[in-house]
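WARN  no MSA supplied for this record, continuing single-sequence
INFO  ligand: iron/sulfur cluster
INFO  echoing inputs
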Amino acid sequence: MTSLTYLVAYAAIIVFLLAVASRIIRYIKNPIHLRWELYPVAHEGGDRASYGGSYYEDVDWWNKPRHSSRINELKVMIPEILFLLAVFEHKRPLWYVTYPFHLGLYFVVLFIGLLGIGSISQLTGIMADTPIMTAVFAVTNLLGPAGLILTVAGAVGLLFKRITDPDLSNYSSFEHYFNLVLFIVTAGVGIITWLFVDPTFDMARTFVANFISFNFAAIDSSLFILQVLLVVLTIAYIPLTHMSHFFMKYFLYHDIRWGDEPNIDSPKTDEKIGIVLNYPVTWSAPHIAGTGNTWAEVATHNPAAAKEEKKE
Amino acid sequence: MVKRLKINDISKDTEQLTSVANEDLMPLPWDIEEKEWEPLSDDIKEKYVCILDDTMILPIPKPKTKEEEDELVKKFLAGMEKLFSKENNWTFLSMIETTMENCAKCNTCSDACHQYEASGKNEMYRPTYKSEVFRRIYKKYIKKEPLSGLRNGNVDLNWRTVARLGELAYRCNVCRRCAQTCPIGVDNALVAREIRKIFSQEMGITTPELHDKGSMLQLGVGSSTGMTPMVVRDNVDFIDEDFSEELGVEFKTPWDVEGADILLIHNAGEIMSWPDNVAAFSLIFNRAGLSWTLSSDIAAYDSINYGVFYDDVQAARTALIHAQAAKKLGVRRIVLGECGHAHKALTVIADRILPPGLQVPRESCFPILRDIVKSGKLNLDPSRNDFPVTLHDPCNVTRLMGIIKPQREIMAAICPQFREMVPHGVHNYCCGGGSGYAIMSRNTIHEWRNKIAGRKKIEQILNAFSDCRGPEQKKYVCAPCSNCKGQIRDMIERYELLEKENMTYAGVVELIVNAMPDVEHEVIIKWEEGY
Ligand code: SF4
Ligand code: SF4
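INFO  complex generated
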């Protein structure tokens, strides 16, 4: 059973990485798209970002230096990521349950990261027995339970809302309920394991150390094994669902919503446009079909002028 | 009729799925008796599918046989397949795919929608309703996801589902206010537009206003108004003469000046319906000493690009013609007049359509006007505009292009009683005429857009003037966009706001001209019936 647990854990992490990579690669491999930005564009420089202004507010904007500000971008991104501001502002009742849920997950991710640091120290002896590592252990031991409890509380709240609020229930499928139950069970088993089997997370830290060092050491608690299996399966499952938004959001924001890069003297963009204009078009409507084989041909054809000519 | 709609109700075998009763409508800040919906005529119902709600925008021929019903579904799926292929939809593939995959169904976006709110939160008009139906079809039939029903929910796909979805794509102004509130960046407005594209680009089903009398007429004769190059020149000559006389100052609009600095492109609707706007531009540009011209090349005197509302191919064709005209004249830049969608079409959308040889710089008129006003060249006298003015923000100019301040700097300089609507700028509400509604008045469409689509805007306008209500005080709604003006004109008329509130509307340039000390006062702006 122990070896199997390790094998499942490796397999799950591989599935997770492959699923994330495949979504990202699929997105990146898409051809150039039209611009479809939505203001405020957070990276706009100066005070423009604050009211949603853009470089189009300048006369002769293409001759002016464009001011892009990473700080302005972070000013929007950090509060959004940390506090889910959009939901806070636009759907407060949901925020009360979705925020603890997300915060719980953030804590759990941090907790796993700190477990990793702890276990590397354990393995290599680096900084072992230093006050830093003592602090890392202390924070790990705080974040773990806090994260698990928040996750369960948030997920129960979300489940209740999804079932009772018609605003949400009409749009929820079996998968939504399944996902929430999965989180409740996984984090719930985590809490029980912490309470009754591994209150100091030493077992968890040792497991992570063994995992990183490919050491299939025996695990002598079936509850702990169950917890490991649930956690890794959940990790593998997340990017296969709409929860992929946790990383795809980067592209939705940076490439689409804030994608305001104008095409000025950009041979790279022109080259990409050249490629798509040569794509074949097979739309069947009469004003398109038969007016050319490629986008370039179809777009330079004037169906109305052709009609007029025929009339004459 | 179904009261609280479920997703799968869209496939129901009923005559009309929903209706917005007067008592459900969002209340307005003053007492107004709303008329009942006029029923659609039997003739229309006989010819077209009218099974969604109280009106019909997309004329889908009514299938008469089982084969025709099946054909509708088949064609829709064929179009959907193409929509998710890079070859046929490179333009928006990344956006539609991410929107399909990442929605959390949290409905954080719902309350941002003016149509949803105005309808009394009728489920049908929730931004996510159409998207959810579309997503379920996509996952099951196009992406063919295993266990799709369990994972994403089911929807029965029959001809009614398809027809209602097409119609529902025209219950959205594509204003993208909902998208602005989405924590993930999902875009329900885009879904409406993509569904419109399937109907137009694959099935050949479009609205006559946008297609036959819109983009096709523009590509054919030069303008959706039907004006040929000769007619447009005559009309503008007439405007020059007429307004020179009325305003008491001579001016002449330049045509086809080769090598001019600016090619100004108006929405030709201005020439027909709001000649004051065209005259005001000419007077301002001439007095500011700009080197500018209009073009009488086919389509280059009409900035409209209705393709951006429903059809990528038509959008590309129109943008290319605009750029070609500029190239031919050898101008340095194209400047867009007061038309929101034309702004976005030629600057933002066309940016990745125009090949290098046609990349003529394109910009908005507002920063130029701001600089002219602030330069002091025109000796403007703000006291001539001493009446309450509020500013409507066209979505395409503000939320979708980020041009917020220039208009406000002009207002601050020449309108002493300027007041903002709440909310405004990038968070504005659509006028209710966006994405082509403004030019549609068939059957009961005008009722729909005034009663529901424009309801929030009229509420905002009234609230902006809450300190000066009544007919004694003149009021001015500045709406610097042809489509928005059309919509606001209709609402002012419907709610009798000229009579009851002494309210008129026009653009930014009219206010600038009205502030010129030597022009006849309040000629360019009129508070008269029938204006
Ligand atoms: S579009 Fe965005 S806000 Fe609306 S339901 Fe989907 S994730 Fe939530
Ligand atoms: S784009 Fe505008 S009209 Fe359409 S659903 Fe979103 S908010 Fe409503």
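Chain B is about 45% helix and 5% strand.
INFO  checksum written, moving to next record
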